[in-house]
Structures are given as structure tokens and as C-alpha cells.
Amino acid sequence: MGRERTFRYRVVDVFTERPLEGNALAVFPDAAAIDGGTMQRIARELNLAETAFVLPPARDDCAARVRIFTPGKEMLFAGHPTIGTAFVLLDEALVRPVGGEFVLEEKIGPVPVRVDAGGRRMLWLRTPPIATGRQFNPALCAEVLGLRASDLLGMAPQLLNAGNPTVFVALRDRDAVDRAWLDLSRSKLLRGEDAEPFCTFVFTPTPDGAYSRMFAPEYGVPEDPATGSSTGPLAAFMMRHGLVSSADGTRFVSEQGTKMGRRSLLHVQIRGERGLESIEVGGHVTPVATGSMCLPVESEAT
Asked: Pick from 20, 53, 167, 277: most CB atoms within 10 A?
């Protein structure tokens, strides 16, 4: 019989300035004594899109190590947990930015975070390198999303991956985005029997950037209110197909989660030649709750 210990956690809403909107995240700021299996069970218990656990860093160049879990699996990288965890670490003075920046260690590797202190503080993550995958049949994508082929724009849906593989499907208008839906059986039809699971991201271009939704039923997330890990690849996809309509093509906003009552605003800043060398995704964070969980502890986590 192991001993018990109480672990404190914070709940924050990410990519919003309004409580009870955005994407809710639980953050355990001191999780060194929680093993990986228990982390997964906690994520399933809380049943948020993701739960983040803060550990001492294994790398000298990182301020903290973060493990991220959906209710169904551990993630290599995820956007709203990165932004939300960075907020909690700053709010509790657990990290000290150098030159307005610090680095979080995630399964994918180091993820730089930039603090924009102008006005209400905004946090930015630098998207990891984006890998380009296969294209998909537009008619099949329309079928599995419950849409008509005419609801899609002219470019083929494509898989892009910055640590979280995502298929991007460009739609003609907001109505088509709101009508889309992907259940688990349709998700398997889209990816095939042998391929790894992926997220399905639908969007339409807007004057400000994009209006978006994301489905990941095989990750335990039927619909995600805000997907920072997919927003950098969204920017790359839109740039490549000439879908960015902002004045200089380097900044825009993806509005996500509105259909499900969790409106999120994900800001994008694109830097470098051709706009694809560095993509930052940023947003605000709103704290909403503090809780504690009493758990058995057998040994120190790794």
C-alpha cells in the first residue's frame, strides 16, 4: 500500500480573454511524483481536451519539462497546453524569462515561448518544423464530413504535421464549416485501416484569417475548441494556396470553437522569407479555477 499525496492543479481557459470560453486546460505545476500511467488516468478523469503535467527539465536549455495528455493518449506536442502551462508557470513565478523568452521541454523537443507584455499579456509558441504528408480525395473528405463535394474549395485536402498530424480541408464558407461533423467510424474511413490516427481540421478563409473547427475522436476529443499545434500548419497550408488575405500576409487570426460555444482566437505571426521559416501561434489565457487531487504515490515519476 503506497502513501497518498495531494496535488494542486490550475484550470485555465486558453486563447480567450473571457472565462468559460476558449479551450480549458488543467495544469499540475508540481507533478514530479506522478507516474505516466496515473497522468493518463487523471486526464481521463478530468475529461478536458488536454491536461498538462510539469516536471523538472532534463535539458539545461529548458525551464521546465511538460507532459501532455488527452483523455485517450499522450501527445508529442500540443498548442493550448503549451500556452496555458507557460501562463501558469509565469503566474506562479516558477520560470524567469530571459529577454522575454523561455523554453519548455516537450516530447517533440524544446518549444520556445515568447512573452508579449504589451497590454494584457499574450504568450506565443514557435511552431516546430512542419512535415508535409499525403493528399486526400476531396470527394471522400466531403463524404466523411457529411458535406457535398461543392462545399470544398479547389485545393486537395492534405496532411501536415508539426508534432500532431492533421488533415486540412478548405471549405467555401462558414455555413459549410458549421455543418461538418466527423464521427469515429468516418474518421477510420478517411485514414484507412493501417494509417496512424490524425486530426481533421476544416476551415474557411475570412478577412481576418480563418474560421475553423477540428475533430479528433480517436484521441478522445470529438471536437477541440482550439488547436494551437494545428494552427501553425494551417498558416502554412493557407500561405501555399494563396488563402491569406491580410494586408501583409504575415499576421492573421483563426477563430475556432465558436460552433461548440467555446469561441477561441488563435493569433498567428509568420516570419522569414516566403513567410514559412518561423510561424508563431499566440493568445491570451484566463484563469478560472484551482483544485486539488489526492492520489496514491508509489515512486517518483519519470
From this structure: 53
Question: Above 70 in pLDDT, residue 249?
Answer: no
Domain boundaries, the chain: 3-121+285-297, 131-281
Cβ–Cβ < 8 Å for 67, 74: yes
The end-to-end CA distance of the chain, in Å, is 20
- Residue appearing with cell numbers 501532455: 68
131-281 shares the fold of 3-121+285-297: yes
186 phi, psi to nearest 5 deg: -65, -35
Question: How many CB atoms lie under 10 A from the CB of residue 10?
Answer: 21
Residues assigned a catalytic role: 50
> What pLDDT, on the 0 to 100 scale, is given for residue 194?
63
**pLDDT tens string 94-129:** 999 999 999 999 999 999 999 997 768 899 999 999
What are the respective helix, strand and coil percentages of the chain, to the nearest 5? Answer: 20, 40, 40
Fold for 131-281, please state it: Diaminopimelate Epimerase; Chain A, domain 1 (3.10.310)
Rounded Cα distance, 152 and 167, in Å: 14
CA 29 to CA 169: how far, in whole Å?
A: 36
CA distance linking residue 230 with residue 183, whole number of Å = 19
Give the whole-angstrom CA distance, residue 34 versus residue 27: 13
What does the buried/exposed string (b/e) look like for 11-29 if buried means 16 or more CB atoms within 10 Å of the residue's CB? bbbbbbeeeebbbbbbbbb
Q: How far is CA 238 from the centre of its chain?
A: 18
What CATH number should be reported for the domain whose range is 3-121+285-297?
A: 3.10.310.10
